[in-house]
Specification:
By secondary structure, this protein is α+β, with helices and mostly antiparallel strands. Among the domains are: about 50 residues; about 140 residues, Immunoglobulin-like (Sandwich). The protein is about 35% helix and about 30% strand. The strands form three sheets. Strands 5, 6, 9, 10, 11 and 12 form a six-stranded antiparallel beta sheet that branches. Strands 3, 4, 7 and 8 form a four-stranded antiparallel beta sheet that branches. A two-stranded antiparallel sheet has the order 1-2. A hairpin with a 6-residue loop joins β1 and β2.
């Protein structure tokens, strides 16, 4: 029993001695051997860099890589401003505001002056147009007056009558009071023996074609005679009938741009005495047919 106890103690001592020897042997190894026996350390991660521009090698065909570092952005932080700098900046802002206000005032004044000049120019143009219109109207009136004074003006100078056998002959006398001759003068006449006066809506017709006549300045001529039968004249003497004669002259003048002219007349033939060779004849204007073209352009007078 004691032998077994001593054997076990001996084995334990032997094991302790073996463990201490191996530990001392490991501690006695040099540093480079220990580092060689240790596992290699893991590589640290490298920062990513932009791809470098590669240039081919002329000797061996291998490409070399050139790494270009990106420049760092540097932000300059200004130092704090002094009171003088703040005052200078404030004065500069005030000067700019004052200059802006002055420019605004000057611009507004220029706009007002431009508007005033435009209004004055418009008024001046308006009054000038009125003046030119008045001058033009006066010139047109003067030209019309000169034309009217010089153009041919045909009118009925009178009616001549005579007994011609079994008829009473009535001949209108035409006259030209203008200083220029007439152009294309044509004369139409007609007559009627009516039981009573002619109605207001009577149609003045002409049975014959117009007769042509030329009248020079201040000329006179008779044309367009009509003939009343003596039986109608006798009925007029007995107041059983009324005798009427009317006519129309159309013509132009020598002035360019003027409208054609006309003159119309209508007379009642008043007879007294006896037939034959003892008649007294007079003429009285009748109705509204005694007019010229200028009268026809005016509105008819209204009865009061």
């Amino acid at each position: 029993m004691s032998r077994i106890f001593f054997v076990l103690v001996g084995l334990a001592l032997a094991l302790l001695l073996a463990g201490d020897g191996s530990a001392q042997a490991q501690r006695a190894k040099p540093l480079h051997e220990v580092q060689a026996e240790a596992p290699p350390p893991e590589p640290l991660p490298q920062p990513s860099r932009p791809p470098a521009f590669q240039q081919p090698s002329s000797s061996q065909g291998a490409s070399s890589v050139k790494i270009v570092d990106t420049p760092l952005q540097v932000q300059v932080i200004a130092g704090p401003k002094t009171e003088a700098q703040y005052a200078a900046e404030q004065r500069e802002r005030d000067d700019r505001a004052a200059l802006t206000d002055q420019l605004s005032i000057y611009g507004a004044l220029l706009v007002l002056i431009g508007a005033f000049l435009a209004i004055a120019f418009g008024l001046q143009t308006f009054y000038l147009s009125l003046t030119l219109r008045a001058v033009r109207r006066a010139a047109d009136t003067t030209e019309r007056n000169m034309t009217a004074a010089q153009r041919a003006f045909i009118y009925l100078s009178g009616l001549e009558w005579s007994e011609d056998g079994s008829v009473l002959r009535v001949a209108p006398i035409w006259a030209n009071s203008g200083s220029t001759p007439s152009r294309g003068l044509r004369v139409s006449t007609n007559w009627k023996a009516s039981h009573g006066e002619l109605p207001a809506d009577f149609t003045y017709t002409y049975a014959q074609v117009p007769q042509h006549l030329f009248l020079g300045p201040n000329g006179r001529a008779g044309l367009g005679a009509v003939y009343f039968p003596m039986r109608d004249v006798q009925a007029a003497l007995e107041e059983r009938m009324s005798l009427y004669v009317w006519g129309r002259a159309t013509y132009g003048d020598l002035f360019e741009g003027t409208e054609p002219h006309f003159f119309e007349f209508c007379y009642r033939v008043d007879v007294k005495g006896s037939v034959p060779n003892n008649l007294s004849v007079s003429f009285t204007q009748y109705g509204l047919r005694n007019r010229c073209d200028e009268d026809a352009q005016q509105p008819e007078p209204q009865a009061a």
